[in-house]
Amino acid sequence: MKKYVLSFAILSLFYVESKACAWADPDYEYFNLFTQSIIRDKSYLPFLHSYSTRFYTDFKNSQIPNENVESWKKFFNNQLSYVETDYLVNKMNISDLNELKNGNPKNQLLKKLGFNFYKTYQEGIDYLIEAKYLEPYMRINYVENPNSFYYDRDQVDKNATQLDYKKTLAALNSLYIASKNLEVKQRYGYQIVRFNHYTRNYDAAILAFKNYVEPIKLKGVPYYMALDQLGGAQRGLKMNSDANWNFFQVFMNSKSHKESAFVSMKLSDTASFNNILKKARNNEEKNMAYFLLGYEDFNNPIPIMEKMYEINPDSEILKVMAVRSINELERSYLPIYYYDSNDPNKTVSQKTSSTPSNHDTNVEAEETKDQKLSFWQRIIRFFKNLFGGSKTDKTDNGNKDDQSDNELLDNPNRIPFFTKNNYWYDESTKNFLDDLEKFTNKTKEKSKDEYWQIADAYLKFLKKDYKKSIQLLNDIKTTNPEYLEEIKRMKVLNDIVSQPRIDAEYENHLMKEYAEFFVEKEVKKDSTQTDYEYYGSKPSTASFLKDVLANRYFIQGEDGKSFLMNNKLSDLQYNPNSSLVKSVEEFYRKPNKTQFEQQIISKNMNNVGNIDAFFSLIYGDRAMREADFEKAQSFYQKAQQFTGIPRMDYEWNNNTQKITIHQYNTNEYNGFNNISNLVFGHNVWVSYQSDPQKSMEKEDYTSFPMIKPMMNKLEIADALIELKKLGSGKDEKGSKANQLIGNLLYNTSILGYYRELFVMDIDNTNGGKYDFWNTDKKNPYQYYYKNFLDKSYIEPDNFDLAITYYKKALDLSNNREQKARILFQMASAEQGKYYQYEAKNPSAIDYSDPKWSEKSDAFQKQLDQTKNQKFRTYFALLKTQYSDTQTTKSLMGSCSYFNYFMK
Q1: Can you tell which superkingdom this protein's organism belongs to (predicted)?
Q2: How far apart are CA 62 and CA 255, in angstroms?
């Protein structure tokens, strides 16, 4: 056996930009409880913490003020609003301004301003006309590398080289000389520098800056716009150190160009920020250089933050570093998924080649899609963290009344976050939290910004010191609306998370005080997003609080409520395990529900048609799998109004998805009706994707008129009850009746062609329901039922039930051919017992063991030996006593493994 290693490079593919692989976006895998964007200076929003994109993008562009617009607004003496100024400068058509200049404005804004507006600000308007004429051309000409294999850009795109170089410079020079307003004059200087830069006349651009921009002793917006172009020209001449310093100045002094200036610095000099620090002339420049160093190398930002603190504890960029650090901690402490070391789905990967879809009787091996899916899901789960309290101590009556709150809160296995077995949570993370708390506590004493008090309170929350966190929050005095909103949210968090038990009184408190966090708001899709790109908003405070409550209900033994906090009633179809279904039904039938239960939890009792019939069908199916046909009959009698397993139909048309509830036709299997009598037959070969007539063969039903060509589940239960009575006889008919019962039990087991019938599924295509995995727990969910559909859990089949009926049939039969067929069916059921044994005994060999292959081979040999010694009883009987029958010879031709065994 070969040992294959999945490289980290492959794993890293999961963490590409969200548009490439939205479901693995790391920025969507934790709860965003501390709002990063509450920093006062919004120009630093791009530099908040993000793994999915190069710069943080969870904000509207309008939040970052455009200093050029602000400059023009001031130029026009604030006669225009910011929005109007932006429209005039950046969006208005050049023809509108020319009409204003000619005294005949048609644009509504310009008509309102009037012709006197032009007279007053003539130089500024004339400049804007010239700038709008130049703007479409103001990009550098693309020069393709001869060896380039990239897409050839559209040659009709405008660029600066398409303008007449001499005429354009002459015009700009003339306008520069004519300008009396120094700010406008400097703007023309900026245009001259930019034009030379974009035509790749780099030396001329540098000279233009010295001759046209610097002599005007203004260092406002036009100056830094020109400085940015100067840096570009210097970079074109490989003057990287000079270019970098100028880009640094732009970064410091601009608001809306920080991203581009940062990128330019990175492109100019690989040692950019260290070199900048060496050139820093004052504390402000040193502080900014430290920020860039800390931002670029974020492994442990606290030493850099200490240096920034010594320079200026009120620095806005120090807050940016702090909020990035808090966000990093959130990713460790507050994941939306958990990695469960006891996750039964994880053990699937440890199975050998003997799988349900490729077992001994299979001649058409199926590579199923969700075998692949479960592999990738397990890889992703490996990187998920754990954040739910455990239910290991749950009693039948929930928590004992005399259980102390301290015990509940201090037990790391019962807390909804901060558990010690978090994958990413280690001692270094805890140390980082302690160090950041010390730093924040120190800074809040010296800084006048309430931000540091809020941050300190949040870190106390992460450390589970809810009382101290609330105390700090109550002491904060601020008028900042964003701060106030964060304080309010954090008070809610502390209140709910510190609550050890959720009872009716507390539920009423939730609805009275915090209803806004639980009443869902419709999420509107961005108009630029297509349906396949869109998958909702990031995990929110509300979703975190729901998880906390789901965990509390879970450890209180209120599984139904826990389930419905995160799932719909219809989701039970995917994992209809009995204990959970019973608890959900108990909640459904609970009288006198609280307002919270009615409005928040009950809303997830979604459309499954007739709810009573839905529950009855699940119970009836379970009774069938336990061979309790009378019990199944009683439930199926109550399930006759069942309208079908709730499934959705998806239709795509031009990136628009139409979703409708599937309507079952009269001849379609819907979970209750339209079941072929082939379910009482036997398989010719194992091929789940073949038509039933190809995979299955009918038995002789002549003596059993209760078996109709098509039946519903109630009719099947009725037939089984009659067959059971007939099976008590001592003749061939009794033998056949028992064989038919055994056939049905096997055919509806995990190995059978009709395996979907009693597990709330619509067909037998492979899925988590058909995996052999084992858990000794009645309920494998340990913390809550979030991500319910990522797991699969249905009580395992009892193959001894089918074997018992087959044994009765074998004992009563005198027909050797029939005995051979029965023995083969018994052997198939016994194979199911082996798969269950195999799942209970997975390999414990460490993959890093240098002798992994050798030990794995030995382990597989041991499994094969156990299989042959303990799980080949009926194959052995076939070989020793019935090898001469026609049935055995036929089976050898259709079952490769049986053929090998017989030889």
Answers
A1: Bacteria
A2: 12
Q: What is the DSSP string of 541-557?
A: HHHHHHHHHHHHHHHTT
For residues 608 and 185, what is the distance between their CA atoms, to the nearest angstrom?
72
Long-range contacts of 113-120 (CB under 8 A, 24+ apart): 113/79, 113/80, 117/79
For 299, left (φ over 0), alpha (ψ -120 to 50), or beta?
alpha
Query: Torsion-angle region of residue 23: left (phi > 0), alpha (psi -120 to 50) or beta?
Result: alpha
Structural domain count of the chain:
1
Q: Which tens digits make up the pLDDT trace of 154-190?
A: 444 789 899 999 999 999 999 999 999 999 999 999 9
**pLDDT at res. 888:** 79
**Buried b or exposed e, range 296-314, using 16+ CB within 10 angstroms:** eeeeebbebbebbbeeebe
Rounded mean pLDDT, 126-146: 84
DSSP reduced 3-state for 676: strand
Residue 638 corresponds to which tokens in the numbers above?
């109550």
Structural contact between residues 784 and 551, judged by C-beta atoms closer than 8 angstroms: yes
Which two structure tokens, joined as six digits, stand for 687? 């091929």
Domain hosting 457: range is 267-339+409-498
CB atoms within 10 A of CB 741: 26
Look up the pTM and report it.
0.77
In a domain, 777, yes or no: no
Amino acid letter at 417?
A: F
> Is 511 contained in some domain?
no
Measure the CA–CA gap between 793 and 775, rounded to whole angstroms: 9
Residue for token digits 């799998």?
625
Cα pseudo-dihedral 280, 286, 291, 297, rounded to 10? 60
Query: Per DSSP, what are the bridge partners of residue 696?
Result: 683
Residue 503 belongs to some domain of the structure: no
Which residues, 6 or more positions from 280, have their beta carbon under 8 angstroms from its beta carbon?
286, 288, 289
Instruction: Tell me how far apart the alpha carbons of residues 330 and 319 are, in angstroms, rounded to a whole number.
Output: 16
Higher-pLDDT residue of 7, 312:
312
Q: Report CA 523 to chain centroid distance, whole Å.
A: 16
Tokens of 393: 């101590």
Which residues have CB under 8 Å from 244's CB, separation 6+?
A: 231, 265, 268, 269, 272, 275, 276
3-state secondary structure (DSSP) of residue 648: strand
Give the pairing of strands 648-653 and 656-661.
antiparallel
Q: How would you class 241 by CB atoms within 10 Å of its CB: exposed for 0-12, middle for 13-18, buried for 19 or more?
A: middle
- The H or E element spanning position 653 is strand 648-653
What is the identity of the amino acid at 498?
Answer: S
Q: Kindly report the backbone phi and psi dihedral angles of residue 398, in degrees, each rounded to the nearest multiple of 5, phi listed first.
A: 85, -155
C-alpha distances in angstroms, 717 versus 85, 308, 627, 803?
A: 78, 77, 10, 19
Of the candidate ranges 29-33, 90-94, 133-137, the one whose mean pLDDT is the lowest = 29-33
Predicted confidence (pLDDT) at residue 794 exceeds the cutoff of 90 = no
Structural domain contains residue 523: no
CB 502 within 8 A of CB 556: yes
